[in-house]
Amino acid sequence: MCPPGSESHTYALTAINAPISSLTGPRARRTTGPGEPDPRIRDVTALLLTETYRTVTAAEAAATCGLSTSRFLRLFKAHTGTTFRRYRLWARMLAAGRVIGAGGDLTSAAAEAGFATPSHFSDAFHRMFGLQPGRLLGTGVAIVTADRPSA
Fold first, then answer.
1. DSSP per position, 4-71
2. Whole domain around residue 104: which residue ranges?
3. What is the pLDDT of residues 106-139, one digit of tens each?
């Protein structure tokens, strides 16, 4: 062990910090000003909106951003105002709404939106909106969705 303040101690710290600083290079640094959306988070929200048919995990999204999962989750919430899981669920509901709005049934909407089963979709819909999707559709209401919400 090198005594603190010695030349060997300084060299050892430099040898340890060099690889660490390369891991926190430009990709991991904030590249936007205050109030501007982080492009990494914007890319993840676009991914969640376009690939609803598969489960994008927080760890996978964090890796694409070059961040730890915990740091990514904090940054995601700071930029979107909601949690990663809630945003992913909302993106799936939006995808299901598009299918239903285009004349699809609940089963195909659930499958295309990435829900494991129609009952999983129905339960998630009920938790989010307070009623079963079949009851809503039974009223004759038309489902209209925006093309793509901005992140």
1. TTSHHHHHHHHHHHHHHHHHTSGGGS--S-TTSPPHHHHHHHHHHHH-TTS---HHHHHHHHTS-HHH
2. 92-138
3. 999 999 999 999 999 999 999 999 999 988 888 8
